[in-house]
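Final report, Chapter 2: Outcomes

The project's central promise was a pipeline that accepts a single protein chain and returns its three-dimensional structure in a standardized token representation, suitable for archiving and comparison. That pipeline is now operational. To close this chapter, we reproduce one record exactly as it appears in the project archive, with the input sequence first and the structure output second.
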Amino acid sequence: MKSDSEKIKEYIPKVRKDIPKKYNQVKLLDYLMDDDIRLLISITTRGDGKTYNYLLALLKIAMKFKSFKFMLISRHFTLRKSYTTTLDGILHENFDLPRKSIFIENTNQYSKLYVNEEPLCVITELNAATDLKYYSTMLKYYRLLVYDEFIALPTDYLPDEAQRLKTIYESVARPVDNGGVLTTPKILLMGNPINFDSPLFSYFNLYHILERQKINTIEKHKKDKVVLERWKNMDSLKGMKLDTFATSKDTDNSYSGEFQTNKNLVISPKEYTMYKNIVGIKLDNEQYLVIHYDEHLNYYLEITFKKPEKIQYTTVLMGLTNGVKYLDDYYYIQSLEYEHNDGEIKYANTYTITQFDRMPHLKTLDYEELISECKPPVPIKPNAYDEEEEYQLKQVEQTKERLVREYLFNDYF
């Protein structure tokens, strides 16, 4: 007898047949039952129907298989209402359901969607992350976390967005008695290529994937447990009028499919291997500033959620531990800011650049001073005189040994 996981795999192509070819074909769902994958990411042009089609597909799967349930995550409480309205509209447009068969249970922490008295999905927001821990016995059955519009305008991001998503994930990632179809929870991220400001890019270390993968491809990155879909859907853009705001399909990132980057300030992948030494600095919000430098003390800067191997400094008191030094006023020089503003400093990625704009005090840090304090000592090589002296002493010792042997040999006979 086939398991629900096997049946869902067979069912997904049937779901896809109902989607017009010009719209998003929900191809990430082909990896839904792949145990090697933890993160599914769809970054495509605006208007390709990814939100509608993925939600419709997930509703169809949840209605057919009781062992599958999913969770929708928004940034704020006010967006929960828009999700429930969207789901209600999708259900009535695609299913012949009596009005009374759809019911939404609302609490302060979440909303729950029922169809024919069967729970299908939970809708919550990042700001409820801590409170959701008290509902883990229920949430553990909603093992696909869907975060739509995870790429937003720079001012829309929460300062601790990545940590809140992690907290919700931990509430879901509890043992399930009956197993369910997803042995390990997965996250589905959907968005348009507006900017690189999303903290999730850094938290999941996605830059090398985004830089390597071409547009109009879907690839499985097994080492990173990620499947990324990048798509520029030209058919879905036909007939759209964008000139009201002096926007074109070629220059607007959300329609062109390409991220806005600054290659002049970002270090090239070929140069990464040249900088083998690091200085680690603990920042606020679980982030780190890493100085990568070479033997000539050239350097580039990176802001990341990944903890570096070494942490020598901290900008927050909570980071003070043995061997870690607090960066006081001595290390900040206001005039050094011009080096960043004049484009003289290199960065690891676009996210780091945006963080320096958000934390301009980091531009005034004396990075050369920090490197000089942390660089490993250069071994002292013996000069020519020392080598000659060592050679002469060695010759004297060899002569002594030879004389002793000769003396003993002659004396014995």
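Archive annotation: Residues 384-412 form the longest helix (29 residues).
This record, like all others produced under the grant, will remain available to the consortium after the project formally closes.
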